[in-house]
Design brief:
By secondary structure, the protein is α+β, with helices and mostly antiparallel strands. 29% of the residues lie in helices and 29% in strands. The chain has a 5-stranded antiparallel β-sheet with strand order 2-3-1-4-5. A hairpin with a 6-residue loop joins strand 4 and strand 5.
Length: 158
């Protein structure tokens, strides 16, 4: 059953009033593929707009806090922690990992996914002048802890 639909099939915000507040955590990732020269510029700190990873990290944190403004049926949450890590992978990829935590009545998967997505979009925005062919890919939930549905860990990708 889809929880965001009522008995008539209409969109509906899930009522979490009677749910217990528990510790919840989610980890999501995104990847940005680019030209090796673009990644080299980022890693070397040679981008004229500044530190690409620092700006993307801040954008991801801000995005997690604004998730309910972007996704219509998400509850506004009092996040207690948002961490966004970025790393070069190979010669042409940036891996973004976002971790969100709270003690609350609903999960933080959408916040982690939003943080990873917006961090990736920020990298694209900052680097599009030198590499319009960048590809944002593999946005996915890696892990979810807490709540009624328990612990989820994604399978490794090849």
């Amino acid at each position: 059953m889809l929880t965001h639909l009522d008995s008539q099939g209409r969109a509906n915000m899930v009522d979490v009033t009677d749910k217990a507040a528990t510790s919840r955590e989610a980890v999501a990732e995104a990847r940005v593929r680019m030209l090796p020269s673009t990644l080299q510029m980022i890693v070397a700190g040679g981008h004229p707009k500044g530190d690409v990873f620092a700006v993307a990290r801040i954008a991801g944190i801000q995005a997690a806090k604004k998730t309910s403004d972007l996704i219509p049926l998400c509850h506004p949450l009092l996040l207690t922690s948002v961490k966004v890590e970025l790393e070069a992978c190979g010669e042409d990829c940036v891996r973004i990992q976002a971790r969100c935590k709270l003690a609350g009545q609903t999960g933080v998967e959408m916040e982690a996914l939003t943080a990873a997505s917006v961090a990736a979009l920020t990298i694209y925005d900052m680097c599009k002048a030198v590499d319009r062919g960048m590809v944002i890919e593999s946005i996915r939930l890696l892990e979810k802890l807490g709540g009624k549905s328990g612990h989820f860990v994604a399978e490794e990708q090849a």
